[in-house]
Amino acid sequence: MHSPLTKWGDVGDWKQSSNMGPLLSNEVVEAGCSTNELASRFPSEDLRNPIIQDNIADDELLQDYLTKCRLEHWYKSCKEGSKNSLDRHAEEAQRERELIRAVDSVESASGSLQDDGLASETTNPDAPDGFDGDDEESVDVDVEMEDQ
């Protein structure tokens, strides 16, 4: 999975995108508010002028958010929180991969012990499940339990 929203580099399955991502507010102030910026996309003045007017109104709202609501502060806080969340997710995924490798390694070692015949000393091939004590013949002496 690739995300255009990260600019912090590879984090787990998230990949860096060089051409897309959130912009800083100073990069979008007054964007799309002039005829020159929109003329190539909207050649018709009848279509372009209402878009410019809407963009100017949006720009005024953005200016208010920047000054009154500390938008830059919240942007930076959200960006940092997102990065920390991605880092934690990547660390958890790495721990899970290491745990899976460890379990696979133990299972592999256990299987090789039985394959090498080393485990045969503790098993009885005649017993239904292959372990001593599973059949009546493996017990030589009756054992009485004592209460203490």
What features would you describe in this structure?
The protein is mostly helical. It has a domain at 1-19 and 81-114. It is built from four helices and no strands. The radius of gyration is 34 Å and the shape is elongated. Residues 1-11 have low confidence and may be disordered.
- The gyration radius over C-alpha positions equals 34 Å
What is the percent of helical residues? 40-55%
Count of individual helical segments: 4
Structural class: mainly alpha
Instruction: State the order of secondary-structure elements, H for helix, E for strand.
Output: HHHH
Largest sheet: none
Mean pLDDT: 76
Low-confidence stretches: 1-11
Shape: elongated
Span of the ends, CA to CA:
64 Å
Percent of residues in β-strands: under 5%
- Give the total of beta strands: 0
